[in-house]
Specification:
Length: 604
């Protein structure tokens, strides 16, 4: 949304969603502004759109003011609401404009009791006034103790009810499946008395409550009058998810027998996680937010299961798939939570999908483990009986056959080894011959390319190139920048600020930094191409058409050929001609266009 843009209520669109990068906002780093300061006319210019801003840029110690314009439509047949998706934002103050020119302050946020919400929904909603025509200017103040995903939706009431009902329906399926799987494993535990089933049940319950904390469902149904529990509950349940997962993995993978190193490492990870949990619980709750290192326990469990599987322990095959799915889902959640990847519905619920698939796969893995172990036990028992029956009579015969086989195999290997040595020598000789042929071919190819390129360069100087030939010399922007860089600084660098002749490579490609004053200069500075907004290779060709002696191109044809607006092509051609005329070039050459000029530039 640009600086002058606004949203219009339109019955043809059920909803429109904007994130903070599309909204006008101001970041109050000092936290000293109030609403009266924001309304000052001189302050309004501070509201800007920052397309590059994302959740990762959100600073929890700053206050964010958002300006939001809405064009009302009294003829609309629908009721409309304003909704905030991120239910973890601590404080939201919405200043709603009234017809008498005043503003009404509406408070909402994660730090308020759930009963104070206008809509009994996990997100924050505000009903929009749409009785009279005009444009309303809304102001929104946001503070949050954790990184907030500021995303605002303007949607019809019909659309809100439809998606909210479907969302809660899916939540019911999700948490219902967790409850059924947890009950099933509880019953299995009482039947077989295997502690890993109890660990898995506790893991499922921790996952359920953690997911409810993430979704905002726990606040709505478990502690609606105690918002102070929100952050703490999320941290506690996330810890128990990791703790029970590690304990269950130790038992399922049988790490104490299969790998002592993995066994000890899992206990160390659990100990470190416990220390971080206690620090977050008693000193710094910000440690409860999802961080990059939160993927370490899941990754190591995943890695351990793969390692043990490769060692022949087939009962963990579905366990590997389950934790692979969970690891991918957790990675996506961490990247989205830190703002590295953009937000959408699938990414938001990626961890839910991962948990659900993981639970189903782990339940199947438990059953598969019992089946495989029983099958292996029965097979081993049968083999033992059979071996006892035939072992005594076949012992000498087998030993004799083995000796003969060893001799035959040894002779066969010696023969094949001699043959391989002979073949290897032949291959080495052929390889050397191929290398010599390739070196000659590379040299001839280089000469041919140099000849072709030199031919094109000569025709460029003689102003006889066609568009296709021109593109072979300057196929892309990098080629143009390299040409400008070589043309401009081939005889040395001179700082435009202090006149110094020594430089180093600049922070970006095709720039130089003065070693004395630090002035940074691009290859295009001082040339006719400085400030051009369209691709540089197209600018080169437009400039070339000014001096070209081949068939003259019309503006319409150039515009179509280069996929640029006719006005853009015409303006740039005129700019080139004006600069050449002002520099006194009656018969300009290609080098005259490349040279530096002091004529005032116009950004195209």
């Amino acid at each position: 949304m640009s600086g002058d843009a606004f949203l219009k209520i339109d019955d043809r669109l059920e909803e429109r969603i904007l994130d903070i990068s599309q909204l006008q906002f101001y970041e109050d780093k000092e936290n000293i502004l109030d609403f009266e300061d924001i309304l000052e006319g001189s302050f309004q210019e501070n509201f800007t759109v920052k397309p590059e801003f994302s959740k990762n840029n959100f600073n929890t110690s700053h206050t964010y003011w958002i300006r939001f314009a809405l064009e009302k439509n009294p003829e609309s047949l629908k009721n409309w609401i304003l909704e905030f998706y991120d239910q973890t934002i601590d404080e939201i103050e919405i200043y709603v404009p009234r017809q008498d020119g005043t503003y009404e302050k509406v408070l909402m946020g994660y730090s308020l009791p759930f009963s104070e919400r206008t809509f009994r929904h996990k997100n924050f909603e505000l009903e929009l006034e749409n009785q009279s025509p005009g444009i309303d200017q809304y102001y929104i103040k946001i503070r949050s103790s954790q990184k907030a995903d500021i995303r605002i939706a303007v949607r019809s009431m019909n659309r809100f009810i439809f998606y909210a009902l479907n969302e809660y329906f899916l939540y019911g399926i999700f948490y219902g499946m967790i409850a059924i799987i947890a009950l099933y494993n509880t019953l299995v535990y009482f039947a077989v008395k295997d502690i890993k089933y109890l660990y898995y049940t506790f893991y499922l319950l921790s996952v359920a409550i953690y997911a409810m904390c993430v979704d905002g469902i726990s606040f709505q149904y478990l502690w609606p009058k105690n918002p102070e529990y929100n952050q703490i509950a999320k941290g506690i349940t996330s810890y128990f998810v990791v703790a029970w997962a590690i304990l269950f993995s130790i038992r399922f993978l049988n790490t104490k027998v299969r790998s002592q190193r993995i066994h000890k490492t899992l206990w160390v990870i659990l100990g470190i996680k416990t220390i971080l949990f206690l620090i977050g619980l008693f000193w710094n709750n910000k440690l409860f937010e999802i961080k990059y290192y939160d993927v370490i326990p899941t990754f190591f469990i995943f890695f351990s299961s793969i390692y043990i599987w490769t060692k022949g322990y087939q009962v963990v095959r579905f366990f590997v798939i389950a934790y692979g799915v969970l690891f991918i889902g957790l990675m996506i959640k961490v990247l989205a939570n830190t703002g590295i990847i953009p937000h959408n519905t699938i990414i938001y619920y990626s961890l839910h999908f991962a948990f659900l698939l993981e639970m189903l796969l782990l339940t199947f893995a438990l059953g598969d483990r019992i089946r495989i172990l029983k099958k292996n036990r029965d097979r081993a028992f049968q083999r033992t009986i059979k071996q006892i029956e035939i072992n005594y009579g076949l012992k000498e015969k087998v030993n004799l056959e083995l000796e003969n086989k060893v001799k035959e195999r040894t002779q066969e290997l010696e023969s094949k080894s001699a043959m391989m040595e002979s073949i290897n020598r032949q291959l080495i000789e052929k390889d050397e011959e191929i290398k010599r042929i390739n070196s000659f071919l590379d040299k001839d190819n280089w000469k041919l390319k140099s000849s072709i390129k030199q031919s094109f360069q000569d025709r460029l100087t003689n102003k006889l190139l066609s568009y296709e030939e021109f593109k072979k010399i300057f196929p892309d922007q990098s080629a143009c920048y390299r040409y400008l860089e070589e043309f401009k600084w081939s005889k040395g660098f001179e700082c435009k600020s202090c006149g110094n002749h020594k430089s180093s490579t600049g922070p970006k490609l095709f720039t130089k930094r003065c070693s004395k004053c630090g002035y940074i200069e691009s290859a295009t500075v001082g040339t006719v191409f400085h400030g051009v907004k369209f691709p540089l290779e197209k600018g080169f060709y437009i400039a070339y058409t000014v001096i070209s002696e081949t068939e003259k191109q019309t503006l319409e044809k150039l515009s179509e050929m280069l996929d640029l607006r006719k006005n853009t092509v015409g303006s740039f051609r005129k700019r080139v001609k004006d600069i050449l005329d002002s520099n006194g070039h009656s018969n300009p050459q290609w080098e005259d266009i490349m040279g530096e000029t002091n004529v005032q530039k116009t950004v195209l």
